[in-house]
Amino acid sequence: MGAPVHGSGLRTDRPERSRRALVAGSVGNFIEWYEFGVYGYFATVIAARFFTPEGGSEVEALVKTYASFALAFFFRPVGAALFGRLGDRVGRRPVLIMVIVLMTAATTLIGVLPTYDTVGALAPWLLTFLRVLQGLSAGGEFGGAVSVMTEFAPPGRRGLYGSWQSFTVALGLLGGAGVAALLATVLSEGQLGDWGWRLPFLLTLPMGLGALWLRLRLDETPSFEPLREEPLPERPPGREVAKAIALGAGRIMGWAAAGYTFLVVLPSYLQSSLNATFQQALVATVLANLGFAATIIPAGLLSDRIGRRPVMLTGALLVTVLAVPLLNLLQNTGTSNAVKGGAVFVAGAVVGLMAGPGPAMLSEMFPTSVRYTGLGLAYALSNAVFSGCAGLIITETIKRTGSVDIPAYYAAVTCAVSVLALLTLRKEPVQEGS
User: Residue 416's closest CA among 324, 292, 300?
Assistant: First the structure.
């Protein structure tokens, strides 16, 4: 177990088409994670504007905000199944165009939504509806983008090309953090709460139009082109595909949980549990995302040389061992700011060891005829449960137990389970055509 589902069908093409595919595939991931990062960074502001009727508590509002956050993630598998099936039948290109249009429209509309003060209880329902649309589009994004990147990848470079998906996740989160930090610096707290929080969502419109232009120029992948000219190949048995999806989700659950814990949930945790300011929390998040970004592409490149398994196992084991000590450094009032900065940087870096090879690893588990659906569902299911619920689980558990160590336990336990799943991955380096 751990070998790919038979007949992966990965092929290569000319370098210029490969580079174009890399950019067109990456840009949607950037926008998706920019928005999800912004939502996480402004969770406390959004809670106050959409989920806090007069007399409601701030903690209760934050829990409801994360519930909306989690709901969007649970629509990702629906989007992965819906758009994945289309992508495996009509092609990667047209579906990725539909996905970027839906994602851009939903995110931009969040920036113009009326708040609770304006329309009352309708406000959180409108926000939740747009979050659902974002979840659907995000579910269709990953499978198509990774299929495009890996199916266009030159020989021996699937790990490197796939790692750009994760790298643009880091760039998107950093972009969101950068915009949030800039707004927090130039605007007063009142301005930020009144209208400043809308600006990051509205910025998605020009970014989305640029992404649409790139995808309109994208060619169909060399792996899928023959399927349009010939009868559809026989699909692998449903039980075999379902088993691969479950195994793939298990292999990346640590990446999903630890990634969102350290890279997105961290700001609200630092503010609500450790009394950090908004600016301090954002600085910590930027450092964590810089660490994440620093290791992703080297990890993907290394996995092309020595295999996916040793690189991803190293990351999962390090999170399992280091999560609690790193969090304790943040909690210790005697720890210097430099050491705390180093701690969050390391936390992000070890997650990058899993995120770099992860997309290629998932892609190699499925044949062309079900790749968009299979890898998209594996990723979406893992993220729905372990990323989308991270903020809700952590916030609610801290509220009930009073333990501020919950984020570390959550990351450590999920990565320990991923270690077991990754042990089923074959040891030898990945070979072309496998």
Answer: 324
Two structure tokens written together for 9: 């069908």
**Pair 376, 83: CB distance under 8 Å:** yes
Helix-strand-coil split of the chain, %, nearest 5: 80, 0, 20
- CA–CA separation, 116 vs 432, rounded Å? 55
DSSP string, 121-188: THHHHHHHHHHHHHHHHHHHHHHHHHHHHHHHPPTT-HHHHHHHHHHHHHHHHHHHHHHHHHHHHHS-
Alpha-carbon distance 8 to 434, whole Å? 6
CB neighbour class for 388 (10 Å; exposed up to 12, middle 13-18, buried from 19): buried
Q: How far separated are the first and last CA of the chain, in Å rounded?
A: 14
Query: What residues contact 339, with CB distance under 8 A and at least 6 apart?
Result: 329
The token duo for 433 is: 């055509």
**Cβ proximity of 133 and 82 under 8 Å:** no
**Cα–Cα nearest to 235, from 387, 89, 97:** 89
Kind plus residue range of the DSSP H or E element containing 212:
helix 204-216
Task: Tell me the two tokens of residue 379.
Answer: 């990723």
- The total number of residues shown for the chain amounts to 434
**Closest CA relative to residue 376, chosen from 170, 156, 110, 82:** 82
Rounded Cα distance between 167 and 180, Å, is: 20
Span 254-275, pLDDT tens digits:
999 998 888 877 766 777 677 7
Neighbours of 101 (CB within 10 A): 16
Classify each residue of 81-100 as buried b or exposed e, where b means 16 or more C-beta atoms within 10 Å of its C-beta: bbbbbbbbeebbbebbbbbb
The CA distance from 206 to 284, in Å, is 28
Tokens 């750009």: give the residue.
164
Q: How far apart are CA 104 and CA 52, in angstroms?
A: 27
360-402 pLDDT per residue, tens: 999 999 998 899 999 999 999 998 888 877 777 887 888 888 8
Task: List strand residue ranges (DSSP E) for 9-108, in order.
Answer: none
- Burial class of residue 5, CB neighbours in 10 A (0-12, 13-18, 19+): buried
